[in-house]
Design brief:
Helices cover 50% and strands 11% of the residues. The protein has 149 residues and is mostly helical.
């Protein structure tokens, strides 16, 4: 592996305080469809704005597709204790307005990886800063990729 690019992520498991509310969102989606929770989910992932394109994508998802993605995120392994084993260069991009994963969790990545790490905070970026703030995210990615050539 030449490098890692980590966008709005963390090494740990889900914050225990969010597990039950997220489970309720999952149950509501399965029972009533994406439309029942799309505004809440968009607020968590994308922040304020008009997200009809994403609402259409979510509305087209089969329940099992959504459940697989949801369960993958909710039942992930905590790899925090192994971050020191990762010695390749890393780029960490994290939105300052990410309500799904706090900046403190991104800072754990930054402070724990063994290799050279570039940390870019995207001002006002939500959880999906790569979608909402594509220009600065892509610039950071291109800079790191260029340094590897």
């Amino acid at each position: 592996m030449k490098a890692l690019i980590l966008i709005d992520t963390q090494a740990g498991t889900e914050d225990p305080a969010t597990i039950e509310p997220y489970n309720q969102l999952h149950a509501a989606w399965l029972e009533h469809g994406a439309v029942a929770v799309q505004d809440i989910i968009a607020g968590i992932i994308l922040g304020p704005g008009e997200w009809s394109e994403w609402f259409a994508k979510w509305g087209a998802m089969q329940p099992d597709q959504f459940s697989k993605a949801f369960n993958c995120l909710m039942h992930r392994d905590d790899v925090t204790s192994r971050l020191g084993e990762i010695a390749c260069p890393a780029l960490i991009v994290h939105g300052t307005a990410d309500v799904a994963i706090g900046m403190d969790r991104a800072e754990v990545l930054r402070d724990s990886l063994a290799g050279p790490t570039t940390f870019v905070a995207i001002d006002g970026g939500p959880h999906a800063a790569n979608i909402t703030h594509a220009e600065p995210v892509n610039a950071a990615i291109l800079q790191v990729l260029g340094s590897l050539a």
